[in-house]
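task queued by scheduler; priority normal; single chain, no ligands, no partner chains; default sampling; output format set to structure tokens
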Amino acid sequence: MSFVSLLMVIVPFSPPLGSSDGQGRILQRFPEKDWEDNPFPQGIELFCQPNGWQLYTERQPPAFFVAVLTDINSERHYCACFTFWEEVDNSQPQKSLSSEADEDDDSGILQPAQLFAPKSLVLVSRLDHTDVFRNCLGLIYTVHIDGLNVQLENLIGNLLTCVIPIAGGSQPDQDEKEESLRTITLGAGDRQVIQTPITDSLPVSGCSVAQLFRQLGIINVLYLFCAALTEHKILFLSSSYHRLTDACRALLAIMFPLKYSFTYVPILPGKLLEVLSTPTPFIIGVNSFFRSETQELLDVIIADLDGGTVTIPECVHISLLPDPLLHQTQTALSMVLDPELEIADHAFPQGSTQPSSPKIQDKEIRAVFLWLFAQLFQGYRWCLHIIRIHPEPVIRFHKAAFLGQRSLTEDDFLMKVLDGMAFAGFVSERGPPYRAIDLFDDLIANEVERIRLEEGNPHKMMNHVKELAEHLFKNENPYPAVAMHKVQRPSEGSHLQLHQMIFPHLDEVTVQLFIDHAAAKLRSAPPAVKVEKNCMVPSGPPLGAIVDRNGNVLANSARRLEVVRNCITYIFENKMLEAKKLLPAVLRALKGRAARQCLTQELNLHVQQNRAVLDDQQFDYVVRMMNCTLQDCSHMDEYGIAAALLPLVTAFCRKLGAGITQFAYSCVQEHTVWTNMQFWEAMFYSDVQNHIRALYIEVSEHELPSPDQGELVEEDKCALEIASEQRRLWPTLSKEKQQELIQKEESTVFSQAIHYANRMSYLLLPLDTSKNRLLRSSGLGDVESVSNSYVTNSIAGSMAESYDTESGFEDAETSDVANSVVRFINRFVDKVCNESGVTNEHLKALHTMIPDIVQMHIETLDAVHRESKRLPPIQKPKLLRPALLAGEELMMDGLRVYLIADGREEATGVLGGPPLLPAEGAIFLTTYRLIFKGTPSDPLVAEQVVTRSFPVASLTKEKKISISLQMDQFIQEGLQLRSCTFQLMKIAFDEEVASDLAEVFRKHIHKLRYPQHVRGTFAFTVGQSSKLVVEHKHKEKNQSLNSWQTNELFHGLKSGVLTMGRMNHSTTTLSKNLMKNAKKTIGRQYVTRKKYTPPTWENRGSIQSQVDEDEISVSEEVDQSSLTMSSTIKSSDRQTMSNVVERACCRDYQRLGLGTLSNSLTRSKNEPFRISTVNRMYTVCRSYPGLLIVPQSIPDSTIQRISRCYRQNRFPVVCWRNSRTKAVLLRSAGLHGKGVAGFFKSPNAPSAGPSQADSISLEQEKYLHAIISSMPSYSDTSGRNTLSGFTSAHMSSSDSSDKQRQPKIGALMKQVMGSKEELPGKWGSIRVSGRISSYNPDIGTRLAGKDSPQANGGPSETHFLRQQRAHLYIIGDKSQLKGAKQDSFQQWEVVPIEVFDVRQVKTSFKKLMKACVPSSSSLDSNMTFYRCLEESEWMCLLHKVLQVSVLVVELLDTGSSVMVSLEDGWDITTQVVSLVQLLSDPYYRTFDGFRLLVEKEWLSFGHRFSHRGAQTMTSQSSGFTPVFLQFLDCVHQIHLQFPMEFEFSQYYLKFLAYHYVSNRFRTFLLDSDYERIELGVMYEEKGERKNPQVYKSVWDNIDRLNKKTPIFFNYMFSPEDGEVLKPYSCISNLKVWEFYTEETLSEGPSYDWELIHGRPETTEEAERQDTSAPKSQRKIIWPCYDNKSKVEPDAITKLFQELQSLEVELGQVSEKWKDTWDKIKATQRTETKLEHRHTLSTSLLMSSNLSHHRRVNLQESGVGSSLNLTLDTESSSTSTPSGSMVGGRPSTSTLYSQFQTTESEHRSFEGILYKKGALLKPWKPRWFVLDKTKHQLRYYENRQDKDCKGVIDLAEVESVTPGTPTMGAPKAIDEKAFFDLKTTKRFYNFCAQDSHNAQLWIDSIQSCLSDA
């Protein structure tokens, strides 16, 4: 082959100096005409000067680089460019050039004196020999510049005519050595050796790869490597052209064996930079000169070779190598490039290990990448499908099978590589089985096992890499010893000579003569033919053997496979009952791959002659198993499961009617795999390969003389081996034989195409073609994107169009389905036939056939569909209706759904027990709840009812999910609904639910969850219509503030003068209500003048609240004696007034002795606090109540000013006072930023001038002083600041316990403020940061009672005095109090603490929900329940709140007042002050007290329930933040530690936790009293209710339930007077609340009590039996199904229930449980005192004087046994004689009845039977009911009778037999109507109305027994 194809001399047109706008032109080119095989490359001038042609003022040294051009046939041309500079003659203006002979440049522009223009010698070749190019062009230049005595024409003639040997030969012998070693000379005394590579398929890289790694580093090059393979755009930048070419060459070299097939331009000229914005991938090099122009490229990866950086844009994601390979490759590269790294840390390194020389290192790096590709592509040949052998092999790669067998289906990198163009080229180049092989083929075939063993051993791997590197080096340098180069170089500095000759014009004729002479010589020589050393390409070990080493233990034991086999055997042996039992286990096992493969193999055994006819039930089971198998297959079908099932779905069938057969394919169409074009292609190619293999096996059988050996040999061969053999024989065959084989193969492909057109129509056409289901299924809509089809430019296009136009739109829907299927099949046929070389005639025939095939199949399907509709439908369970609350209405009919198991495993049967989920039933949406009710799908528990529900208002997240189910139908869409009541519903819609209905359902949920206004919530809509009527009727009577009652409003406005004070526009509606209320109460209360009587407490609050109302011009000093309560006031007014008082929590203030009114005409000045009405119009602070407790001495005007310093105007108010120490608890919001500095300013600090801020800060101080001075301890010590005063006030012997407590407070304070030494482990503080907080360190030491050293060495007097505790502590947020100065003489001290914000609570709660109610079971062993719980940090938040609360309790208990001033004063502040009061005051631990606490601190003081609960559309964006739930959890933690201190039970807390988000009651709606008044819901009267079931307040509901049942009562309640609780707050002491984790699937949440316990129910055990044998007491309790407290109540509840049932039995009026309990306690106390009869445990529990046993860490149920002792003895000793008689009988009360829903549900079969009585008793007709659910036979007097007369337990029945008439039997009845029932206890004789009836009864009872 000729070495050089073209040589040119190129010069520029001269441009202006320094500009780059000039353009080169070609002076001369040789040869003048193109070679035949080498056309002239256009635009070569641009590549000679990529930066542009320009003139220089100095001569530059000669330059050389190689550019690469790619022609239209993807052939690369290497352009070696040698550039030198010549002087431009500027003496005269130049004329334009007229002929090519002129080398000078002409231009009319005058230039400076001396300029130099570039001139280039360009050599274009198809071969890449850079060094030879450089030498040859250099020699031409040398001859010219040094003036050697050699003709340039001779040099060029020699260069153009030298011939290069052909590469090849694995180990060259001597002749070949001559061939591959060619010495060339150009005739100037030079000599060069050209070595051609042994194997030309291996790239030649020189040192370029090593150089690229040196420039960029390992990681960067790996990024580029992966980017190139996954088809990204790559741009190299360098200031050296040579480096750019080398880098691009190196990148291509490491990609071997893949070849880059996109744009490849190592040097891109500046003029062509717009190429960079091409949409296709590329590898391009650009000079750094153009760097700025590459900055805007958004999707190009830029590698800067000079700077060593790779920049990847944000929008580009590069998929990297799969993990173990990536790491191994990095390690290997590091060992090659930096071998010293490994021993860098050795103390005595073994000699120096230097890296190899660059040439060797280059090959080692390439060897690593070769090793990598061998790893990636191992076994690829086993996934090749050969679909044609002759005339040329056609090969396709089965990508899905390759990925599946390698277990790399999820790997992004490999997926992209296999889909890429480079791999397609790889398959077509390396796929053929008979060809020359190279190093890579050898590696794949023989070295796989070795590579596998080397994986864990880097040194072995390096040895292998070095061996490969040696091969590569030898290939590139077959004879490294031969070095005979001799090339002249120009003399030193010759290019700088002043007067150089211009490069001469060469004589074309001389050169042409050389060329012609050489051509003639070449023609006469024998042609040099490269010997093709073809052989069969070995395939290497099969994939299966490779993958199993990964130890992917498939989750299928032999036992599971056995289950699958047994089930299939039972089905085909028609043992359907056995099969039914195994089916659920089989469906579960089919999740595993091995079981799926086992299924296909087993089913195959039952197919005879391509057909297997089944009966209905067999067919149904087989189809279910097929669906279950297919639903876990991906659309790629990487494990070949769908492929194995494809022949089976056309084999299994059932007869529907005369001549109508339904095949399994019509029931398994709903899987994405069938719409995936690539699946069908792979299946088609696989079948074609099998048929072609069979074709050649047959051929060889006919030809072989000895079939014995031949068959053995051929049968074992795979298709590729056979193909290889055929290719070898091909040249030896005659033309006729060749033609015959081609035709046979072509007809094989054609027949398969017809076969597949049929198969595809089977699986793509739905059974009911009118459904149009195909069009919305994923695949067919966008087939074009799935496969690059040839349909556009083939016959199929026109055929499909003509078919469409012909069919028209008469039957639009059917034709739509048909058309889309026809188009899909056409595309498929088109693609596979084009690829496998089917003739055009055949293709046309196919396209004509396809519409007919489809149409025929549609007709067949219509008949099948018609018949299948006549089949009895699959029996779906009846939809069970849920019970609804009064006022609750269904929004939609129940939608049939499946409830799917979530991450909670109890119900799924994983932890033992039968699986309750998935369950089939319906989901109901009501105005209040979302309810699922249904029955488990598992037949073993199908008689249970599963209920799951939650309030719509508690929904926190709803999202669509797609679910695959092993049910009768294949289900796709589903919803996941998560509720903040710790419930999750994953539902899958049944196929009968249309998708638009599901969408309507979602919209309804959303509308109900987020109403426009709070009036849209269930609490308001529940009884609205009746309520409005009531209000109009009772206009006179109803005095509550309802903003819509305009008549009353006007009445209120008319009755007084209204002088509005400071009111902004938003308070107008409120003010109207308030004014009206105020005038009415004042007007009616104080009208009559009678003798003064001291007002009762209720009136005092009202008087005080109204008396200060300036705006209604009632003076403050009203004559109190005249303001007496009139006895004529209407009851409704009294109601309103008491409501006002109650809501303002005045009862509590009176109980605490805060703000009471004395009997004198003016207030007593001795009382430190007063009730202020400054906020009565809600103008000072909208979120505070109307009446507030403030210091007596502070006037209202001051309060208004102070309030502005606080956030939300929430200034400090008193909310509780310690009755013993008289310390007060205050609450407020945090300060505004601007108020902080002024607040802590020293009172004596000089100020620049009086300003408003100063005066406000002084007033704030005055306010705090007023609070401090109200404390008795302060007034005692204020006069005498001496130690004795301090001691007498604080350390008196009566309160010596304080001394012991002091250090405790110090420790607490340190913990709360985050001191480092106190951090208790990882969970210890809210923010787990170990920083020491920046608070004043004195505070902690003072609180701990320690000295802090003084500056002068001794304690000063002030500091000595300051040793006492401050009178007021302000708990503030650390971030708010930065920089605050503390003054030692002030009487208060600030405790800065780190608090969490609500966002943390919100995030923590979300994580807590996911931990307690996970949506799916986690496979990650790290994500256990406790790990998730820890990560949620919920316990940390509880710990922090409790810690702060306990600190405050300690401070209050030791006599200091505390002001809690955190955030906005309505979240954490509320939590802390509520907990402090609960811990300090036993009153709040009772029912009334807790209610009052919540109403006062949470409702009146404006916790934002609506906002935090996201109750309406407006607050939707803020999300759900459960601050109140956190408080209840804290109370629960305290309850656990002190179970004897609380009157209410844990259930009470759960009830509140559920209903505070449920929106069933109005109690927890709205954000403040202001909003409640504005909406008119604050003073609603109880008399307003018409419907007794609809309660507006949760408290009313609790009161009512508490009267009925002790469910809220804590039997262990045994309080101690005035005990202050101090719970442990460490995380180790906290428990996860049951409320978060418990579930009752039998009845749903038990918090809507009326639904579960409100219905009268009869129970099976309460029914009287006429057998006296004792019943079994054994019960099975499922943790997630049964309500444990109900099925297994604690001892006392059980006794109450028995007592109640005895009272009912004896006909006594039942006594209220509370009265009974109080009596028992009273009796017990007296008995204990008098007789000491009871056990120690009893007296311990029931007495209340042993304080050291009070902290109990048990659950309530834990003490059931000891309590049982007490009450058992008591009840038996105090019961009546008749009671004790009854006590001897078996228990008559049981709880089964509570599961019953409706009577009809449990009646499986019923009717009249005559029953023979006991001995000597007559036969009597009775109404008998057979109950399958309870498994019993009950009988009643008659059909209407509700009272059961007796029960026969079917568990005890031994036999049912036909009987004979006995004495006294009914006359005139057939003998066959009698039957007998034998139980373990007795013999029953029955008589039915006739023999038919008797048989029915016998059958029904028998079936009941067999089911059990």
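post-processing summary
- The first strand starts at residue 6 and ends at 12.
- The longest helix spans residues 840-870.
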